[in-house]
Amino acid sequence: MFWHYIDLSWRSLKRTPMVSTLMVLAIAIGIGVTMTTLSVYHMMSADPIPAKSKQLFAVQLQSMDDGDGWWTSDDLPYQLSFPDAENLYQDRAAKAQAPMLRTGFAVHLGDARTKPQLMGARATSRDFFSMFNAQFVHGGAWREQADKDAMKQVVIERSLSEELYGQQSPVGKTLYLDNHVFEVVGVVAPVTRHIKFYDLNNGAFRKPERIFVPFSLIRELELPSWGNSNGWKREEIKSYQDKLNSEIYWLQYWIELDNDEQKQQYSDYLRNYIDQQKQLGRFTREHPKFSLRDVNQWMTYNKVVSEDNKILVLLSFMFLAVCLANILGLLLAKFMRRAPEVGVRRALGASKTQVFMQHLVEVALLGSLGGVLGIFLAQLSLWGVRESYSAYSDLATMDAFMLISAPVIAIIACVVAGLLPAWQVCRTNPAYYLKTQ
User: Who has the most CB within 10 Å: 129, 139, 224, 349?
Assistant: First the structure.
């Protein structure tokens, strides 16, 4: 019976090509607009590392004095000072820890063949790669000793490796960062494609760094910060050492904990650390706070998905509702013109349920056609977003879930819009139309 309804629906669409085309276009435009905003929102709010998002935690410490606040909702700074980051890293109280800083170098091969390129880099620990599930194409992370002795070893991203060395493995070769000679020890695939969740200070959707060096080189090479630096008190910063000793917040710190028990143990460690620092004249508040937020909590806390994004999604659904309101009027007019035909069918034995289901199948067919065309329009719109906003190049895409969702939303929306017209036409009085024939 279902396939019979499909056949009847297709014949009905062909009988009124102009009206059918208008309805399909209305659905397609509504779905195209809706899926464009919904796809971007879906990629923004998606868990960037689902396998470990509950095990990775951003560390925050409230080291300001009483009377000095921060602009966050809980009065906690987003980043740590260098003394705190270095102390926590030396204690190694977590399963794995990754202090980190966004910095940069002029990158070249030390010969006339390659023009130096200024690009961002990340100074961090070797734990960074295991914590964030980095996939090595060649080699691996630098030796553990490099984190202690400021060894000049570097891990580079795959695209940079191919740009500088071609398809061959560069492991063991040299790379110049500014005037410093580094040994390439590994080549890694992009750590994250959509959201640089481990460092949200300079934009969540910026391209991740393609160069990684040991954290210990911050002190050795006096690496500059390419990220945000914020202070809460007046300090005389006349040298790089002064900056290292200062209370300026300019470093990020992530740890890995496997379960609630380890989280509790690390929380106890932070309380003891704060008490120790209070004895040294720091953390002078009566009750200094700290926080451990997992990946998704960190993204929510930093408002990665803003209210504007949510409003855009809401407006797109409202636009879809306007499209459906127009479709409802067209369906009502089309179905009621068919009332004499339906009256004859009812007189020949067709039940109200059969007539109702036939018309719902017709509107579902309209929805599926509009949904498929809507996917094409959405892809066109997303291409425009990618071309206009480079930061959204990896976000303005439709994954498999969104591709499936588009026709499903279109069919459901059309069925909802078609309920009233289908109900009206199935209530046709057969006797009235038989008399008029």
Answer: 129
